[in-house]
Design goal:
This protein is mainly alpha-helical. It contains 8 helices and no strands.
């Protein structure tokens, strides 16, 4: 019974979600805030509904492609650095295997193992996967966290699109006056919900996340609405 309890014991850790959660929240927040603010600014400038809708669609496409390109370039740079580290470590293992084994042993000693146990662990890991052991414990690279530019670019574009779609769809379906008010109310509600859910997934209470996102979303919308109101150029 005790053996089974230990065998099935598992502790889920919230930090394991930090990578994808950060990217998803950043993309969705950016899409919702930038697109709704852009459309609100056009509404405050007394633009026609079709012009507001067109500006929202243009903001969605441009923002999604910008997010994809930026993330792809950024993660590609990270991948290039990882490949360079792999080449450096591979050469060091070929030319100085004894020194590399000693270096790995010292890493485990610094983590709290006795010198004898650290050496035994280093030897066994070297025999199993020498390059993988050094990349993981010396450089900090592992397969689960390897840079994937294409995946990162697609995920960022998708997250931005999901965030930008609600105000665009609202403008497309809206009939009658009050479009600006509807954009503000719906986008702030969605921002609060997004911030709440994101913090709950991360293990928090949710309300701080909702408040943070609401604050910045309100500032962005107020700024663009002020610009639109100041110029009030009606675009046919």
């Amino acid at each position: 019974m005790i053996h089974d309890e230990h065998h099935h014991h598992h502790e889920p850790h919230r930090s394991q979600n930090s990578g994808w959660l950060r990217a998803a929240v950043l993309g969705a927040n950016d899409g919702l805030i930038s697109t709704s603010s852009l459309m609100l600014g056009m509404a405050a400038a007394q633009a026609q509904p079709t012009t507001i809708l067109l500006s929202g669609l243009a903001g969605l496409v441009a923002g999604a492609l910008s997010m994809a390109a930026g993330e792809y370039v950024s993660v590609s740079s990270q991948r290039d650095a990882e490949h360079a580290d792999v080449r450096i470590e591979s050469r060091a293992l070929r030319e100085h295997p004894d020194l590399e084994l000693k270096e790995l042993t010292n890493i485990y000693i610094q983590r709290g193992l006795t010198p004898e146990l650290a050496h035994a662990v280093a030897v066994q890991l070297t025999e199993h996967d020498v390059l993988g052991a050094h990349l993981r414990d010396e450089v900090g690279i592992n397969d689960a966290q390897r840079a994937r530019p294409g995946q990162a670019g697609i995920a960022s574009a998708a997250a931005f699109t999901v965030g930008a779609l609600p105000p665009v769809l609202l403008c497309w379906l809206w009939r009658g006056p009050g479009l600006g008010v509807a954009i503000v109310a719906s986008s702030l509600l969605l921002l609060a919900l997004l911030g709440y859910v994101a913090e709950r997934i991360a293990g928090g209470g949710g309300w701080k996340g909702a408040t943070r996102v609401l604050l910045w979303g309100t500032l962005a919308q107020a700024g663009t609405a002020l610009i639109g109101w100041m110029f009030r150029v009606s675009v046919a």
